[in-house]
Amino acid sequence: MAGVGVPGRFDGLAIAPAGSRTALIEFGPGAMEVSLLIATTDGVFHAIDSRSLPPVSAADVTAVGLAAIVAAVVEVLRVAGISSPSDLHGLYLSGEVAADPAVRQAFQPLCANQQLRYVTPQPVSVLPRPAVPSPRAQLAALPSTGSAAVPRLVWIIAAAVTALVVTVGAIGFFVTSGGDDHPRYPTAAVGKSGDFNYSAVDAGAGRLYVGNQQDRSVSVVDTANRTAVATIPLPDHPMGVAVDPTLHRLYVVGRGDGSSPSADKASLFIIDTGSNQIVRTLVTGRQSWGVAVDSASHRVYVVNLYGFETSTDVHRTNPNGASTLSVIDPQSQSIVASIDIGANAMNIAIDPGTRTAYIAAQHINSSNAIDTLVAVGLDTNRVIDSFGVGKDVNNTFDLAVDPTFHTVYVTGGDRVMVVDPATKSVVRAFDAKGYSSIALDPVAHTAYVTVFESSTKLLVLDTRTGSVTATIDCGKESVHGVGVDPQSHTVYVLAYDSVLFVPPPKS
User: Fold this and answer.
1) CA distance 285 to 34
2) Of 473, 433, 435, whose CA–CA distance to 456 is shortest?
3) Torsion over CA of 422, 425, 430 and 432, rounded to 10 degrees?
4) Checking phi first, is residue 267 left (phi over 0); if not, alpha (psi -120 to 50) or beta?
5) Which residues contact 472 (CB under 8 A, 6 or more apart)?
């Protein structure tokens, strides 16, 4: 293997399903190298991470020595995004030391899905990775069992090495201590959120704005110091959040009561980012959700699940009139248009290159069929098209636009669909259970997706190849949303009452 990200064939490695990950542990004379590979097709693997550890000799093959070696490998894989044995399709050992049955027995519990194998791969170059403490040093740093504050353990090294765990301490794939819910990433405390959370990034000002649904506020986070520096109180529960750095305006949607179309009105709060004060409040509709800013015209677009129509029979007179899109002029700070966009509208994303806004909504097309992605022309304030994103996808939730390829990433139906508006087709799809949030870094060609039913993780997608390149274990339950900084490429993971600062995966 020539280096990380370089494809290659490996003798003895079975063909694996595309997207699955395999660990390769090579016991060489100069180093023990741990590589995480992702399968493409026809037996070709890409190395997505590889790290060198101190070499292992026959003298290290003792009970304590093997426990330390396994712990060191577990830590490398954990950092690479593997949080449990089920995340691996296969585990392979190579080298003279790996031929020892005791070594294979020690590593067997790390391979839940496939039988552990001994192979002779092509030579692997030692990559210039940061030094990792020796196995014995890592062992010394592990907490011992029997303490009153026993850490929570995920991925306990059990089964064949149970005796080793008892002897040398707790070895886990994800180890926390003292109630720390995310030991690997810096965090900033913010207000309490709901099931889904929204944020906006002003990269130039170094500010992250996080909506706190339960607390009815917005937290202003200094991204350099990773601390909340202000809290903006709101009279309503915040939903969508967007920022216009040029005009120094923050736009926050107050959802209103969502119990029925005739419930309390929703609002758009216009906030001066210099003073963090609300300067204008506009009534936009009923139960509003997403908001977006057109960077060219600076107009603001708010998605309303219900428009101003209070009749529940609205579908009878106008099948696409239940949900509306409010268009706000930034100079007059007033609503200049209201566009009927269908029903069950949720979120919005803008493609500045094609001057198009895309909304996750149900729209009746000319064939009387239901589409689930609506396109609105920014220059005409009219619905210009609608798309279906799958026969079994009845509702869509969140979306993001890739301005480079002019494709739309849409979540819904337990999947992420990549839609090409030019051909009105789904060009690829990924599994993502539950209602998922998505953020896209167009410069890094990367999309990040929350997995609602596995709420501790993020999927990482390569927007150029359309492949899942990594899974980030955020180390905490109830991940409610995600944002990304287009300059630093830092990923902001929104948890219940905190923000995790996750560095971008290594390319």
Assistant:
1) 55
2) 473
3) 100
4) beta
5) 81, 448, 457, 458, 460, 491, 502, 505
Contact criterion met (CB below 8 Å) for 118 and 209: no
Beta carbons within 8 Å of 156's beta carbon, 6+ residues apart: 165, 170, 171, 172
Half-sphere exposure of 227 (CA within 13 A, CB side): 2
User: Which is nearest to 429 in space by CA: 442, 439, 419?
Assistant: 419
Residue 251: helix, strand or coil by DSSP? strand
What distance in Å separates the CA atoms of residue 305 and residue 313, rounded to the nearest whole number?
15
The structure tokens listed for 147 are 């303490």
Q: Is 166 exposed, middle or buried (0-12, 13-18, 19+ CB in 10 A)?
A: exposed
Q: Read off the tokens for 454.
A: 């596995």
pLDDT string in tens for the chain (507-residue length): 333 333 344 445 656 665 667 888 888 888 888 887 766 544 566 666 677 788 888 888 887 788 888 888 887 777 666 767 777 777 888 888 888 888 888 888 777 555 566 655 443 332 233 333 333 343 344 333 333 332 222 333 323 232 233 222 223 333 222 234 444 788 999 998 866 789 999 999 999 999 998 889 999 999 999 999 999 999 999 999 999 999 999 999 998 854 444 456 889 999 999 999 999 999 998 889 999 999 999 999 999 987 765 444 544 466 777 889 999 999 899 999 999 998 888 899 999 999 999 998 887 877 767 778 999 999 999 999 988 887 666 678 899 999 999 999 998 877 888 999 999 898 888 877 666 889 999 999 999 998 765 567 888 998 888 788 888 888 755 688 999 999 999 999 998 889 999 988 775
Which tokens belong to 304? 């309303």
Q: Up-side HSE of residue 205: CA atoms within 13 Å toward CB?
A: 18
Q: Are the C-beta atoms of residues 48 and 5 closer than 8 Å to each other?
A: yes
- Is residue 310 within 8 A of residue 324, CB to CB? The reply is no
DSSP state, 107?
H
The HSE-up count of residue 157 (CA atoms within 13 Å, CB side) is: 29
Q: What angle do CA 126, 132, 138 make, to 5 degrees?
A: 140
Question: CB of 106 within 8 A of CB of 25?
Answer: no
Cβ neighbors of 121 (< 8 A, separation 6 or more) are 1, 10, 11, 12, 13, 24, 26, 92, 94
The token duo for 52 is: 């060198």
* Separation of alpha carbons 190 and 229, rounded Å: 10
